[in-house]
Write a structure and sequence with these properties.
The protein is an alpha+beta fold and 213 residues long. The chain has five helices and eight strands; from the N terminus they run H-E-E-H-H-H-E-E-E-H-E-E-E. It has a domain of 114 residues: Beta Barrel (Lipocalin), CATH 2.40.128. Strands 3, 4, 5, 6, 7 and 8 form a six-stranded mixed β-sheet that branches. A two-stranded antiparallel ribbon has the order 1-2.
Length: 213
């Protein structure tokens, strides 16, 4: 819900190039010569076609390509996973979006500051861990706007570690999550314990980018 545009923002960064020499995923992901307009797909023309050609030409050997092929780069939104019945009422939804959560549980203390991403091909990637404390602090930032039912609150009764599977540029991957049990909900609210990498930083073990062609 919050941050649902995160995936689109990263995709736009790859398409438009946040730094010189970087650009979009290869045409197997999205054909660079096409422009989408709702459900219709039509060929790009004019400036859009020229930009698409530049994007495609700049992709091979770029830092973004290294991240795409060797790093942890989800191709779906991994901001949060809400339970199927969220929310029971407008008051609950307002409380959640406004960050009005009361913690009535002990936050797990991580035994490590790293978390391992396990890919379907057997490869693994160790990345900095996002703690349960950090998740709760982000959920309850004091400057969140309140558009109604501002007195409503939700109570977190338990926080525990878990795992989930996400789709990435390298196929499916298992990642660690934090599961927050909220009073009144049978299924937990889940949040990733590891974040997507910066697409413009070389992935661990990827080696230096190929020289420009």
């Amino acid at each position: 819900m919050r941050g649902r545009i995160a995936v689109a923002a990263v995709a736009a960064a790859l398409l438009l190039g946040g730094c010189a020499g970087t650009s979009a995923p290869p045409s197997s992901a999205v054909a660079p010569s096409l422009v989408t307009a709702g459900p219709e797909v039509r060929p790009a023309t004019g400036d859009a076609a020229r930009k698409a050609a530049e994007v495609a030409a700049g992709w091979p050997g770029s830092v973004a390509q290294q991240a795409w092929e060797h790093g942890y780069f989800p191709i779906v939104d991994t901001t949060e996973w809400l339970p199927p019945d969220a929310f029971h009422s407008g008051e609950d939804k307002a409380a959640y979006l406004s960050g009005h959560l009361d913690l009535k549980a002990t936050l797990p203390v991580p035994v490590s500051d790293t978390s391992e991403v396990r890919f379907a091909d057997g490869s693994r990637l160790v990345l900095p861990q996002r703690s349960a404390k950090s998740v709760f602090e982000e959920l309850t930032l004091p400057d969140r706007p309140c558009s109604g039912h501002c007195e409503a609150r939700l109570t977190v009764t338990e926080v525990r570690p878990g795992t989930t599977t996400v789709a990435t540029s390298r196929g499916r991957a298992d990642i660690a999550v934090w599961e927050f049990t909220v009073a009144g909900y049978d299924r937990p609210f889940r949040y990733p314990a590891v974040r997507s990498q910066d697409p413009y930083r070389p992935a661990p073990g990827a080696g230096p980018p190929a020289p420009p062609r």
